[in-house]
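Saturday, quiet lab. Running sequence design on the structure tokens for the scaffold JK sent over.
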């Protein structure tokens, strides 16, 4: 599967560098917000693990793009392969196995980072249950895919690098790609939709809306990239397109998970205003009246900070069930320090 590297080399290098810059800014911002490196939270460490697996992914993907594997084109006579070519294809097949694992781990680590952030955001909101169930779905999907890929679809396991393999599932991995596409795209859609009700309930400056819209566009592009890398894996298995879209998916996922948490440092450098104000506008006269009442008596409402942890100030004795009732007692603040 030897292919030209013209697109893969410059694009992957640029995106990889941008991802590291954004991750570093995110960590510095989190340090400013938390007050100490020791107070960084689980998602801050997980994103570093994701960058490590993504580094392995990009490094090995460049080798995969110029090395043949046990995915043998129709019409090729394997009996005519030289010993050297067989060894090359065995080596390339093992690299494909590592690439698949690194891409899977990277993407699911990014999902975990986003869900941890959502957990902090929605601690006192109705969406919190959705976040918990989404996390369960994401965790189960990862385990199911790994069990199927490593123990079911291709048996025995060494057939993944056999030349030729006994089954197409050991070279084309059709079943795995379908399973991955279903779990990956559905979980991405849920994750990108979770904050939507919250954002529709708040009133933000146009600049802030544009920033958030841009981040959601990156998230949407990640889903498109996930779909396209599977499309090209099925329709052009011997081409370069699937390798390019694998990397694009991982890069955009990392950017989407980190950009919302970069604001404190950017605010400090450029002397920007906080993302705050009385941002919630009730949908009914009763809601607006209740909101004004709680603005006048700050000791009786909850403040939720985006995208930082939910902080409860003088929590009311009882928060009624129902989305609207909780928002009557909730004031959304967009600030990070």
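Result came back. Writing it out in full:
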């Amino acid at each position: 599967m030897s292919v030209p590297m013209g697109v893969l080399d410059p694009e992957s290098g640029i995106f990889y560098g941008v991802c590291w810059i954004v991750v570093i800014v995110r960590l510095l911002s989190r340090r400013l917000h938390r007050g100490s490196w020791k107070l960084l939270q689980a998602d801050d460490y997980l994103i570093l693990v994701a960058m490590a697996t993504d580094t392995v992914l990009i490094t090995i993907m460049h080798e995969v793009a110029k090395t043949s594997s046990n995915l043998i084109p129709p019409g090729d006579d394997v009996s005519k392969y030289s010993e050297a070519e067989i060894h090359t294809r065995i080596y390339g097949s093992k690299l494909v196995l590592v690439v698949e694992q690194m891409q899977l781990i990277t993407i699911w680590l990014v999902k975990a980072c986003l869900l941890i952030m959502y957990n902090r955001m929605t601690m006192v909101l109705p969406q919190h249950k959705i976040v918990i169930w989404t996390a369960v779905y994401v965790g189960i999907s990862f385990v199911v895919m790994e069990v199927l890929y490593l123990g079911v679809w291709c048996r025995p396991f060494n057939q993944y690098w056999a030349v030729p393999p006994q089954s197409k599932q050991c070279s084309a991995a059709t079943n795995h790609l379908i399973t991955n596409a279903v779990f990956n795209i559905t979980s991405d859609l849920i994750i990108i939709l979770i904050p939507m009700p919250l954002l529709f309930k708040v009133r933000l400056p146009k600049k802030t809306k544009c920033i958030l819209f841009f981040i959601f566009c990156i998230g949407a592009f990640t889903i498109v990239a996930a779909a396209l890398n599977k499309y090209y894996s099925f329709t052009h298995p011997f081409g370069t397109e699937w390798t390019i879209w694998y990397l694009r998916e991982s890069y955009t996922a990392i950017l989407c998970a980190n950009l919302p948490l970069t604001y404190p440092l950017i605010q400090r450098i450029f002397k920007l205003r906080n993302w705050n104000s009385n941002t919630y506008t009730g949908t009914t006269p009763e809601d607006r009246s209740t909101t004004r009442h709680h603005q006048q008596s700050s000791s009786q409402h909850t403040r939720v900070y985006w995208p930082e942890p939910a902080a409860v100030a003088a929590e009311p004795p009882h928060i009624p069930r129902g989305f609207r009732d909780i928002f009557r007692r909730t004031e959304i603040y967009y600030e990070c320090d």
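Notes for JK: The beta strands are 302-305, 330-333. The chain is about 65% helix and 0% strand. Ask whether to fix the surface positions before the next round.
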